[in-house]
Amino acid sequence: MEFNEKQIDILLAAERLFATKGFDGASVRDIAQEANVNVAMINYYFGSKDKLLETFFEWRVPDFMINVDELSLVGNALDKVDVLVDRYVKSMNSHRKLYRVIAIESTLKQRMLTSDAFKKLKIHNLEVITSIINSGIAEGVFKAGNDPILIHSMMMGTFMNFQMNQVFLQDQLGIADDDGYGQYIETTLTEFIQKTIKALLTYEK
Q1: Is the pTM of the predicted complex or chain greater than 0.85?
Q2: Which stretches of the chain drop beneath a pLDDT of 50?
């Protein structure tokens, strides 16, 4: 889906406001003011605030699709897990505003979680994770019986905990600023998730 410059300005403004005020707290007038456009332009391009939210997520979804072509170049299943987690966390960390929107909306009215774009994203990523697990079983390095839904949920849940509790965790970790916190997520937290997933997949029950 292609968007012109004004549409992107509106989508970025909506992202900022949805992340801070939530969908219900951000009015179309607020978004128009933030994007420096008039309300009529938002209605012309998107029709309604609900449609704007749906379009916003469709616009962002490609950034979160696991890259199958990149993973196909990685030699073995253990290395695929490392690459998968590294790319996933970096993608999520670079779009932290979006994940604030997801957290708020999923808690309240499930708007995003029932959208077609969100379902396609989840199905695609689960299929990729399932493929990695199956290839590891075939290689003899992963044990059978691991649910890809639980693996994906652990990865997402760990990141979301760091996302939603940033002020507290940043203080506890002694990290001075937002950039340092992002760096911690992309290094220490990423390594922890990689080790945890590989431990779960190789654990002999």
Answers
A1: no
A2: none
Q: How many Cβ atoms are within 10 Å of 16's Cβ, its own excluded?
A: 17
CATH number for 5-60: choose from 1.10.10.60, 1.10.3720.10, 3.40.50.720, 1.10.3370.10.
1.10.10.60
Can you tell me the distance from the alpha carbon of 197 to that of 65, in angstroms, rounded to the nearest whole number? 19
**What b-and-e string marks burial along 138-158, b requiring 16 or more CB atoms within 10 Å of the CB?**
eeeebeeebebeebbeebbeb
Please report the pLDDT score of residue 132 as a whole number: 96
* C-alpha dihedral sign at 124, 128, 133, 135: positive
| Amino acid (one-letter) located at 111 | R
65-201 belongs to CATH 3.40.50.1110: no
> How do residues 158-182 score in pLDDT, each as one tens digit?
998 998 899 999 999 999 999 999 9
Q: What is the Cα–Cα distance from 7 to 1, expressed in whole angstroms?
A: 12
Whole-angstrom distance between the N-terminal and C-terminal Cα of the chain? 46
Largest CA distance in the chain: 61
Q: Which of 40, 44, 42 is nearest to 14 (CA)?
A: 42
* Residue whose entry in the numeric block shows the structure tokens 């990290």: 175
pLDDT number for residue 170: 96
The domain spans of the chain are 5-60, 65-201
